Amino acid sequence: MAMIARRSRNSVCLLHDVLLSRQSLTCSYTQRQTYVDVYMKWKKDSFFDSIDTIHRSVQLKPLIAVKNCIVSSSPDDYCIPISAISKKGLELGVPNKVARFLRLYPSVFEEFTGPNYNLPWFKLTQRAIELDREEREVYVNSKDDIILRLKKLILMSGREQMLPIKVIKGLQWYLGLPDELLRIPEDNLDGCFRVVELEDGLKGLAVNVDGSERFLSVMQRNAMKRGVYTGVEGEAIEFPLYPSKGLRLKRKIADWFDEFQKFPYVSPYEDYSGLDPNSDVAEKRVVGVLHELLSLFVEHAAERKKLLCLRKPLGLPQKVHKAFERHPYIFNLSLMNKTCTAILKEAYCDRGAIEEHPLAKVRKKYINLMKESEGILKRRRLNNTPIDRGNSNIKDLDCTDDEEMKSLT
Predict the structure, then answer these.
(1) How far apart are CA 45 and CA 94, in angstroms?
(2) What is the Cα–Cα distance from 387 to 381, expressed in whole angstroms?
(3) Measuring CA to CA, which residue among 399, 14, 35, 64 is closest to residue 252?
(4) Residue 362 CB: number of other CB atoms within 10 A?
(5) How many Å apart are CA 59 and CA 312, to the nearest integer?
């Protein structure tokens, strides 16, 4: 009996030791937990999927490009023959044939028969002309603000304070820059900008700033307003969180994120060369850069793949796109229009936190005008009234011979 009792006590002690060892392993794992171990499953959010200003920009961007082409070609009467733009579809970003695209928006582009050879012409409607003038007034009145946004983007590059012009042009739509601004930067930008020569014959745009001048991010300004940030280097700032309905973090990820919020905040405009790229502090800097970047954009959103060109210039990691997935309380990923769009939640959940872009209201008016085209086309289908093109023998330069024969039969 004594021997059996000793064996049972030994078994209990052994089991206790095993449990303690497992507990210590779990604690050590939790202490070693870094952003590399964090994996989040993407979750759809119907609120952000329904924002027209974000998802309609896929159609609005080529529409504005075509409108600008018409205005620059004919600034007096705002009309142009289809032959002048039918071959520029790729350049203008038109997803299909140019004439077919223009006919999708009769509230913006009015079709009529040209003076020669019965070719189709297109002109801007009166509403579109008024919106174009309003847009150009915004560029003039808000030029300082728009240039400041461009300057901030360049200053995020760290010590170099320079970005290739090719990269800036790739983000031109999101920054709301007018076409002529980057066409001749020497004439349209102030003295703090300078054009520099890069490798392979490329050109870059650099910024010269006074050493005493300090740029604050949106995060820093809002934290100062709340009285939780004094501006001391290495001070922590917590990101505002906006959970989506039904989204729950796993316990170990929630614990990691609580610790992540307590790490020092590294401003996107500070030197980041001394950071360990595999550290959680570097991860917080990446999130801060993406937060500031989206806050500078017109819709506070962008196609995720369009941001990949900034990896090297802004010192972002190779898999920077994963940061949007690791922080679903800060960013939202939308798969509308067969594209992955990254959206800054704070801009839509707290309207007073981020300043509205000067062009935002004008683009909303363009989108409302585009929506009117859907009603016009629907009424035409119901009434079965063809488009008035004058002579029925008009040849559409966008049509192939087969399509033309079908239209005549």
Answers:
(1) 29
(2) 11
(3) 35
(4) 21
(5) 30
Q: What pTM value is reported for the model?
A: 0.83
CA–CA separation, 68 vs 91, rounded Å? 13
pLDDT tops 70 at residue 308: yes
Taking Cα atoms as reference points, which of 393, 377, 367, 403 lies closest to residue 63? Answer: 367
d(CA 270, CA 260): 19
* b/e burial code for range 167-182 (CB count within 10 A of at least 16 → b): bbeebebbbbbbeebb
Nearest to 161 by CA among 225, 103, 204: 204
End-to-end Cα, the chain, rounded Å: 106
* Contacts (Cβ under 8 Å, ≥6 apart) of 35: 256, 260, 280, 283, 326
The secondary structure of the chain in percent helix, strand, coil, rounded to multiples of 5, reads: 50, 10, 40
Cβ proximity of 328 and 247 under 8 Å: yes
Higher pLDDT, 26 or 139: 139
Please report where in the chains the tokens 């008016």 appear, as a residue.
365
Give CA–CA dist 178/83, Å, rounded. Answer: 25
Taken in order 26, 29, 34, 39, the sign of the CA dihedral is negative
For residues 267-285, give the mean pLDDT. 91
**Average pLDDT of 390-397?**
49
- Residue-wise pLDDT tens digits, 85-95: 999 999 999 98
CA distance 331 to 259: 19
> Kind and range of the H or E element at 65?
helix 57-73
User: Can you read off the two tokens belonging to residue 290?
Assistant: 């993406």
Give the Cα separation of 170 and 180 in Å (integer): 15
- Whether 406 has a pLDDT exceeding 60, the answer reads no
